[in-house]
C-alpha cells in the first residue's frame, strides 16, 4: 500500500473527490497557483483548471460566505482557511448561515461545504498561528467537526466530509502534516517519529464520520485524545507502563459516545488530553458525558490535561503543549486515586 504524509493524503482526497464529482471545487487564500501555504492543494489547479481550484481574496468571511451560496445552488465547495486562527471573521457565516441552512429552509436547502483549517502548534507560531478552536464549533448544532490523527484517516475522513450533505469543520493538526509526531519528545529535538509516512490506499475510500477507534487496547484507564495528542497519549502510556486504553475520537461532533462509555465502564478510570486551553475546552464536555454515563463505574475522578489558560509566547510553545511527562503524571495520579 502506498505510504504518504498527511499533506499528501489530504491532497489525494481532494484529487479523488474532484475527479469523481465535477461539483467539487476548491478555493481559499493561496490554494491555486501557489498550492497552499502547506502545499495541500499543490497541482490541483494545473489538473482541474482555474474554475475548480482558485485563489480567493484575503477575506475569510467572503470565502465561507461564497461557499455557502455555491452549496445552496448545488456545488460542493471544499475551502481552506489558511490557519485556524484566521477563521474568526468567518465565524458568523459558519454559525448563522451554514449550520442553520437546513433547518431554516425546512430541508429545502442543505449546505455541503467543508472548511479545512490547519490547527494547533508545531511551527512556533504562538498565539496567532497555533490556536486550537475546536470547542467553538462543537458547541454549534448543525456542524460536524473532524480532527484526523494519521494520513489514512485524513484521506478517508476528508472524502466522507466532502460527500456529506451538511457543513463539516475539518481541523488538520500541523504537527502531523509531515508524519505522525513522536510523542516521547517534549521539544522538537526530532520532530517526526519512526513512522514518517502512513499507509494510504489509492483511489476512493471513506472513514465514517462519528466513529472513534481504539488505538491502544488497555484495561487500567481510558485516555480520550484526538489529533496530535493521540501520540502523546501513546508515549505517556509507554513511559509510565500503565495499561491505558487510548481512544482516538477522530470526529468530535457527532461524538462516538458508545465507544467511550464502553471503554470507561471497563477500565473505571478516564483521563482526557487535548492541546486547546483547559477552561471550557472540549475536554470539559467529554468529562461531563463520562460522569453522566459512567458515574457508578468510576474508581477515580475524571482528569483533564490541556494547554494553558493564557496566550503563550512563541518561545514557550513546547511548554504550553501537554507532553508525555504532564500526561504521565495525570495517569499515575488517576491510578493512585
TrEMBL record:
Residue intervals of the Transketolase-like pyrimidine-binding domain: 4-179
A Gene Ontology biological process term:
response to nutrient
Keyword tRNA-binding found: no
The yes or no answer to whether the keyword Oxidoreductase is present is: yes
Cofactor(s) it depends on: thiamine diphosphate
Q: Which domain of life is it from?
A: Bacteria
Identify this protein by name.
3-methyl-2-oxobutanoate dehydrogenase (2-methylpropanoyl-transferring)
Keywords from the UniProt entry: Oxidoreductase
**Source species, please?**
Mesorhizobium wenxiniae
One Pfam family matching this protein: Transketolase_C
Entry EC number(s)? 1.2.4.4
Q: Which enzyme class, named as a word?
A: oxidoreductase
Select a single GO molecular function from the record's annotations and give it: branched-chain 2-oxo acid dehydrogenase activity
According to the record, the signal peptide region is none
Amino acid at each position: 500500500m502506498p505510504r504518504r504524509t498527511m499533506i499528501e493524503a489530504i491532497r489525494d482526497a481532494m484529487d479523488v473527490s474532484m475527479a469523481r464529482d465535477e461539483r467539487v471545487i476548491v478555493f481559499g487564500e493561496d490554494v491555486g497557483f501557489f498550492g497552499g501555504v502547506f502545499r495541500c492543494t499543490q497541482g490541483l489547479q494545473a489538473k482541474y483548471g482555474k474554475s475548480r481550484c482558485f485563489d480567493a481574496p484575503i477575506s475569510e468571511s467572503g470565502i465561507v460566505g461564497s461557499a455557502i451560496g455555491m452549496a445552496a445552488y448545488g456545488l460542493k465547495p471544499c475551502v481552506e482557511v489558511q490557519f485556524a486562527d484566521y477563521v474568526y471573521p468567518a465565524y458568523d457565516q459558519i454559525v448563522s448561515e451554514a449550520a442553520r441552512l437546513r433547518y431554516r429552509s425546512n430541508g429545502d436547502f442543505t449546505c455541503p461545504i467543508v472548511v479545512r483549517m490547519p490547527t494547533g502548534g508545531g511551527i512556533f507560531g504562538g498565539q496567532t498561528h497555533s490556536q486550537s478552536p475546536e470547542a467553538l464549533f462543537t458547541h454549534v448544532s448543525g456542524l460536524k467537526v473532524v480532527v484526523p490523527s494519521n494520513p489514512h484517516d485524513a484521506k478517508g475522513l476528508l472524502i466522507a466530509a466532502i460527500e456529506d450533505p451538511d457543513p463539516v469543520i475539518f481541523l488538520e493538526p500541523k504537527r502531523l502534516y509531515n508524519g505522525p509526531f513522536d510523542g516521547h519528545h517534549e521539544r522538537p529535538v526530532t520532530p517526526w517519529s519512526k513512522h514518517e509516512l502512513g499507509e494510504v490506499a489509492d483511489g476512493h475510500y471513506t472513514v465514517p464520520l462519528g466513529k472513534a477507534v481504539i488505538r491502544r487496547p488497555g484495561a487500567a484507564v481510558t485516555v480520550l485524545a484526538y489529533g496530535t495528542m493521540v501520540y502523546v497519549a501513546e508515549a505517556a502510556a509507554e513511559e509510565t507502563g500503565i495499561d491505558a486504553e487510548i481512544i482516538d475520537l477522530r470526529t468530535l461532533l457527532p461524538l462516538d459516545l458508545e465507544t467511550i462509555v464502553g471503554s470507561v465502564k471497563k477500565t473505571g478510570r478516564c483521563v482526557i488530553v487535548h492541546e486547546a486551553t483547559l477552561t471550557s475546552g472540549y475536554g470539559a464536555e467529554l468529562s461531563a458525558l463520562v460522569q453522566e454515563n459512567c458515574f457508578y463505574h468510576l474508581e477515580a475522578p475524571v482528569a483533564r490535561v490541556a494547554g494553558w489558560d493564557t496566550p503563550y509566547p512563541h518561545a514557550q510553545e513546547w511548554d504550553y503543549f501537554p507532553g508525555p511527562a504532564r500526561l504521565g503524571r495525570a495517569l499515575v495520579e488517576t491510578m493512585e486515586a
